[in-house]
Specification:
Layout lengths: L1 H31 L16 E4 L4 E7 L3 H4 L11 E10 L5 E2 L4 E5 L5 E2 L4 H9 L13 H5 L3 H10 L5 E2 L3 E10 L11 E5 L12 E4 L3
Antiparallel strand pairs: 1-2, 2-3, 3-8, 4-7, 5-6, 5-9, 9-10
Length: about 210
């Protein structure tokens, strides 16, 4: 009887130790996880895209509005009121396309027009600085310092920041739209892009991509 009790206690302690080790490993694995931007496919291969065959430029979008997709981020953007949209621009022409003057809007079914958030907008939201408090740019170091370096790096890596698309190339990145005051923002919405210019400076026709949800 004593040996059974001894073995049970030994087994219980081993199980506790094993559980503790597994918990530590899980925490370390989560902490070590770094954001990896999705590999961009050609824009016209996305279900939601607009392909200008004459200009040989296509734009594809992918809204990260489900918990499964959102797992690539350490920040819970839905809880912060932001919708990440993966934007992909492919240039199949023989000349570069300038994005320096590009304007992007997320237009809801009820015609709300939302521009992409800047890094400073995201920093303020994550720092929970109340609206109405005006700060000069860049935002105060104290507020920015309240966000972890990992999160700052993730935002920098995720943001769409390309200024041009080289010939036969693709540029991609996330744009974050503030939908905190809008319920059911995605159904019936569309993404609208203007200001893309060819090598001669002529503006391309606008791109309009409905989100088919």
């Amino acid at each position: 009887m004593h040996w059974l009790l001894r073995d049970f206690r030994t087994g219980a302690r081993s199980s506790v130790r094993l559980g503790a080790v597994l918990c530590v490993l899980c925490v370390l694995a989560f902490a070590a996880k770094e954001f990896v931007k999705p590999d961009a496919k050609p824009a016209k291969s996305y279900p939601e895209h607009d392909d200008h065959t004459d200009e040989k430029v296509a734009v594809g979008v992918d809204a990260y509005d489900t918990p499964e997709k959102a797992q690539i981020f350490s920040v819970k953007w839905a809880d912060e009121g932001y919708l990440p949209v993966f934007v992909v621009i492919t240039n199949d022409s023989d000349l570069p396309v300038s994005l320096a003057s590009m304007q992007v809007q997320f237009i809801t079914a009820r015609r709300d027009k939302i521009s992409p958030a800047t890094n400073d907008d995201l920093y303020r939201r994550l720092s929970h600085i109340k609206q109405g408090r005006v700060y000069p740019l860049p935002i105060p170091q104290k507020a920015k310092g309240s966000i972890g370096k990992k999160t700052l790096d993730e935002i920098d890596r995720a943001q769409f920041d390309a200024k041009a698309v080289e010939p036969h190339a693709t540029q991609s990145g996330f744009m974050f739209f503030d939908i905190s005051d809008i319920s059911s923002a995605v159904p019936g919405a569309r993404v609208y892009l203007t200001g893309l210019r060819d090598a001669k400076g002529a503006e391309l026709l606008y791109f309009e991509i409905p989100l088919q949800r």
